[in-house]
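sry for the spam today, last one i promise. struct tokens for design, 298 residues
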């Protein structure tokens, strides 16, 4: 019998419940601070499992995989980086689909799409336009490109005119801007950076079956003034250069992207993210798309 006035100590089951409750509460708070489940997974180097809910669309002899979700206009189109496909957008796809109609796809030669012969950025952009038309996914479009995907969407925007109402460039591969704006500031490191950039040109050419010399000329010729652009970049710093030079390079990157569409560019540093900003900081990608969709709607 319990002695009057003496409290019973909590049993092991009560202690276990308290521990589990505390851990669960801490996890919920951490997820909320990370901007949701996708952001929390990104912080821990993980990405949500991709569930393939799309379909292969026949384009007269070649089929491409397309996964569209949500509703509303403008339609967001997600363009993956080199060697990647629609699955790379799993951290943001559903979040974007809650904002407006959002389509991810596999370029020819990637994922669930049929292979392709060597081609150019313009060829691929034209094929994407055909895919969206055949699938009855009309514009206007906000194009989101990661890494090499940025080159694809810049060329598509230049070719598509009024059908494109905004761009989100997610830590993109822009060899034209790097060559013109950044290399002149690198001093003794310039030859090394030029060699590395040439190697990257070779990689994207081989991995994505691109005629890169022609494609880069198309990239340079692409004209998109007046188009609202959000640029999301991982923090850049070259430890072998002094702070003044690093600051000059940072300003040059801002000016380089501003030159694409003077007065219409937002340059956002993705603190806490590496190259895969859409995985490490999905909240930033969703925020930029929401911003551009709002501009298009109003």
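last one done:
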């Amino acid at each position: 019998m319990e002695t009057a006035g003496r409290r019973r100590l909590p049993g092991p089951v009560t202690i276990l419940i308290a521990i589990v409750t505390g851990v669960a509460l801490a996890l919920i708070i951490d997820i909320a601070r990370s901007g949701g489940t996708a952001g929390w997974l990104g912080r821990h180097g993980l990405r949500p499992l991709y569930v393939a809910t799309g379909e292969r669309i026949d384009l007269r002899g070649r089929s491409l995989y397309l996964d569209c979700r949500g509703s509303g206009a403008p339609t967001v189109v997600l363009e993956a980086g080199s060697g990647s496909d629609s699955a790379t957008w799993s951290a943001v796809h559903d979040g974007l689909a809650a904002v407006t109609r959002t389509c991810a796809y596999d370029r020819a030669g990637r994922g669930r799409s049929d292979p392709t012969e060597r081609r150019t950025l313009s060829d691929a952009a034209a094929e994407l336009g055909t895919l969206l038309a055949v699938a009855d996914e009309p514009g206007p479009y906000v194009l989101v490109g990661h890494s090499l995907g940025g080159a694809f969407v810049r060329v598509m925007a230049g070719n598509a005119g009024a059908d494109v109402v905004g761009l989100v460039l997610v830590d993109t591969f822009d060899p034209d801007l790097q060559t013109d704006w950044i290399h002149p500031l690198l001093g003794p490191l310039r030859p090394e950076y030029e060699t590395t950039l040439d190697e990257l040109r070779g990689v994207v050419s081989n991995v994505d079956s691109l005629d890169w010399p022609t494609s880069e000329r198309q990239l340079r010729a692409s004209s998109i003034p007046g188009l609202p652009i959000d640029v999301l970049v991982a923090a850049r710093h070259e430890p072998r250069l002094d702070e003044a030079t690093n600051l000059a390079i940072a300003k040059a990157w801002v000016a380089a992207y501003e030159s694409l569409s003077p007065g219409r560019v937002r340059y956002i540093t993705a603190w806490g993210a590496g190259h895969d900003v859409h995985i490490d900081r999905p909240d930033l990608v969703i925020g930029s798309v929401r911003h551009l969709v709002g501009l298009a709607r109003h």
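Residues 12-33 form the longest helix (22 residues). ok im logging off now
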